[in-house]
Amino acid sequence: MMEAEQIDRNTINEQFRKVQARIFRQFQKNPDLHALLFLIGMRELGQIQTKFTKEEKQHLMHIAVCKLLSEEGYYELEGSDKDGWPHWIATQQLPKMTMDEQEYLLKKQIIRYFGAL
């Protein structure tokens, strides 16, 4: 890994921890990456609902990933279904990435989403 890339990753990890701390202050729970995706999915759904099925939780996380990756041009909002759930279409194929690279990309977009960058 190049030195500049390592510095960028350290900056992203530091900013990500700030987002986690902000969410912790609000909800008194320490959010990991999955919890933040779930929260973004709920926010994008825009419906007040306290209980979700396991399948709905997976859909919420998918909505979040699509929303975050739409900022990189990989997805576009197609519209919402009759129940108000957003649907996204892939606009370009994601490059092959390691799990670490995927996590880095999502963290970067989560920081942008919460306005921490």
What are its keywords?
60% helix, 4 helices, mainly alpha, 117 residues, 2 strands, single chain, two-stranded antiparallel ribbon
List the helices and strands and how they pair.
Elements lengths: L2 H25 L5 H13 L8 H17 L4 E6 L5 E5 L8 H15 L4
Antiparallel strand pairs: 1-2
Helix pairs in contact: 1-4, 2-3, 2-4
The pLDDT mean sits at 91
Number of helices: 4
Q: How far apart, in Å, are the first and last alpha carbons?
A: 23 Å
Order of helices and strands: HHHEEH
Q: Please count the beta strands (DSSP E, at least 2 residues each).
A: 2
Radius of gyration, Cα only, in angstroms? 15 Å
What is the percent of helical residues? 55-70%
- Give the percentage of residues in beta strands: 5-15%
Strand order of the largest sheet: 1-2
Low-confidence stretches: none
The shape, in one word, is globular
Largest sheet: 2 strands, antiparallel
The overall number of domains is 1
Structural class label: mainly alpha
Report on this model:
This protein is mainly alpha-helical. It has one domain. The chain is 60% helix and 9% strand. The protein contains 4 helices and 2 strands. The protein has helices spanning 3-27, 33-45, 54-70, 99-113, and strands spanning 75-80, 86-90. A two-stranded antiparallel ribbon has the order 1-2. Helix 1 (3-27) packs across helix 4 (99-113), helix 2 (33-45) crosses helix 3 and helix 2 packs across helix 4. The mean pLDDT is 91.
